[in-house]
Amino acid sequence: MTATARETVLRRVRDALALSDGPEVTVPRGYRTGRSLPDEERLALFVDRLVDYRAQVRTCTAATTAAVLAEVLHTHGARTIGVPPGLDPAWLAGFDGETVTDSAEVPAPSLDALDGVVTGSAVSCAETGTIFLDGAAADQGRRALTLVPDLHVCVVELSSVRTGVPEAVAQLTPEHPITLISGPSATSDIELERVEGVHGPRTLAVVIRTDR
Prior knowledge:
Residues 111-208 form the LUD domain. This is LUD domain-containing protein. It holds the Pfam family LUD_dom. The mean pLDDT is 92. This protein is an alpha/beta fold. The protein is built from five helices and twelve strands. The protein has one domain: NagB/RpiA/CoA transferase-like (Rossmann fold), CATH 3.40.50.10420. Strand 10 and strand 11 form a beta hairpin. Strands 1-12-7-4-2-3 form a six-stranded parallel sheet, sandwiched between helices.
């Protein structure tokens, strides 16, 4: 069986370590953990950070999720959207456009034909305004689905928003493919002019559900 690139890299690391005569190094892990904030404060902090990153933010309840998502998609003129296979269909009950369910068999370049994508999320960090996607979860889909379309509408449960990075990372499974999102894709050119949409969606719309 042909080794994957990951297996090859890890094997070379292990070989290099086996040849080393240096002592093992223990990395200190004295992070601040266990921090928490009341729901209102955590929500306010998370929204503040998202807006600072130029993300568009809406809040909703479980009962108004479909209406808010439909409004967000309509605002951006999205008529054909991609969704992961495990996305709750009730979330898109108010959307009157075409919904395309993604799969591994769909070539990544063809995702560019979509007007946008709607996904769930695994966990988020209020302190940094970062959303974590877990590619193993059925409502978040594969990484290509959230990188190729120009619009990403991400649904976040307030109950999944943690105060800090250590608290958020503790909720994840390290072996899963994790994508971290802090605002829409952006970079700067040599003259420090901000350019959006280079490495991912130009527009990030976050819909925060304050209850289930």
